[in-house]
Amino acid sequence: MNSTSETAWIVERATTLGFDLCGVVRAENFPELELTTEWLARGYAGEMKYLSDERRASPQSVMTGLGSAIVCALNYNFSEPRSIDALQLEGTEPRGWISRYAWGQDYHEVLQQKLRSLASCLPERFAEPHEARIYADTGPVHERVFAKHAGLGWLGKNTLLLNAKLGSWFFLGVILTTLDIPPTLGPAESPPPDLCGSCTKCIDACPTGALVEPYVMDARLCISYLTIELRGSIPEALREPMDRHVFGCDICQDVCPWNRRSPITEAKEFQPRVFPRLAEGPSPELAAPATAGADEESLFLPRLEWLAALNEEQFRAMFSGSPVKRTKWRGLVRNACIALGNSAPALDSRRYESICTLLTRLSSSSEPAIAESAQWALSRIQ
Ligand code: SF4
Fold it and tell me: Is the Cβ–Cβ distance between 356 and 309 less than 8 Å?
């Protein structure tokens, strides 16, 4: 690794701010960015039109005078069980899965705050006038590719950035700057080698076959896309494989051997939110990161009946400042209905009647995707 005093100073500052990894790279047209064009041409991006922004393939077009990129990673892993284990736990009520990254505070906000702090330190070390812009899944920047070339890891067969120490449970953020900072990797160094080897656990475990070949995902089949990005109805053939996922999917990370020993984060912001179980709905000001008790609702293994019964106002209050708000109320209720339809074998007889009543009410919702999903669920459990 290139250990110039400037890069070492930036990495040290990033660590002080709580980042787990940091690297610097000169912003170039990395070869992986060109592959995105073919991926898009195959239609794999589905409705995610923002991915076809041409600036994503050419970092220089994002910022005039762009010199370097500072890439930071923030661990969000907690000790809660993996989805593939947790969803097997027998409970008295059907429960769903919200992706690990979305249990707590919105990562965009947390990352942006830390990146802003890091960018504001730069004038202490770099006297020349410069510009710096921050990106945390918020602009036409392919963070994973920058991270690879900054020496933070390799792009795995599940398409995520893998790091030999952290695994893949981390967020990535980037500072683009007009400064020309010596890169972390020296001129004779390459990015970390691909350590996936002959392992195909992620490809084999994906319930919808979204990893169509190693390193290539058809996002239209991915449960994360279906539950978060797709508006309208979920294709019928994919509803059963969705199982009880209501927001995102962690399966290809859960099975990855590189995540077996992933460290637990110290970032309390990402702990699962819990809410008091109130008949009239949760109050956001009472939400606190803690372990859910018997009279509480949690975003870790949330009760499906609770999610499906939320009204739009309750959804807005509860998911303010949470990544879950991206799927919007109608998306979450749609997903919860499908998950209830996939819960039939585990349905507790005490809950069965009230769930059927709820689904019957939702099957006449003015939101077509909710109505249709509720009808589908009823046809599965009645
Ligand atoms: Fe498949 Fe889930 Fe991974 Fe998407 S997130 S590729 S559905 S295992």
Answer: no
